[in-house]
Amino acid sequence: GTGADYTFPVNYIMELLETLRNAVPASMSPGWSLITLVDAGVPFMTLLGAFDNLQPHGILEPRQALSHASATIEFFGYWIDKSRESGQGAGQHSAAQNELSRSMSNGDLMHKLNA
Fold first, then answer.
1. Distance between CA atoms of residues 73 and 34, nearest Å
2. What are the two backbone dihedrals, phi and then psi, of residue 59, each rounded to the nearest 5 degrees?
3. Angstrom distance (rounded) from CA 113 to CA 35
4. CB–CB of 30/67 below 8 Å?
5. What does the buried/exposed string (b/e) look like for 48-84 if buried means 16 or more CB atoms within 10 Å of the residue's CB?
6. Per residue in 79-113, pLDDT tens?
7. Looking at the DSSP assignment, which residues form a beta bridge with residue 93?
């Protein structure tokens, strides 16, 4: 690979973090891997895609479906909290709010939610 996907392979890192989280589920919240990567600077929508790619296609076992839903809900709550924070200067929006607004206005977020 080349570029950012080669130097910071989000899908691979997400997979490793989820493996770690699943090994010790009592000590990490369902959205831990998503929130960790957001805090490292990965865009929210990129993480939603990477997280969804981890799930097998088809019908999930109830425990898998619950875990995925719990992580996604926690992630959206974190995104909303971050979007409420103010930006760098007076009257500026946070990066999270900008990404949330952009993903809602262009339909990317709804497309992800309906998938």
1. 11
2. -85, 130
3. 18
4. yes
5. bebbeeeeeeeeeeeeeeebbeebbebbbebbeebbe
6. 999 998 866 665 566 888 899 999 999 999 888 77
7. 86
Dist. CA 71–CA 38, nearest whole Å: 13
Tokens of 64: 């898998």
CA dihedral 46, 21, 60, 35 (to 10 degrees): -30
The residue whose two tokens read 């946070």 is 94
Yes or no: say if 30 and 70 are a contact pair by the CB < 8 Å rule.
yes
SS3 88: coil
Looking up tokens 């996604």 gives: 72
DSSP string, 34-68: HHHHHHTT--HHHHHHHHHHHSPSSPPPHHHHHHH
pTM for the whole structure: 0.81
The C-alpha atoms of residue 17 and residue 34 are separated, in whole angstroms, by: 9
More confident residue, 60 or 5: 60
For 86, phi then psi, to 5°, come to -80, 160
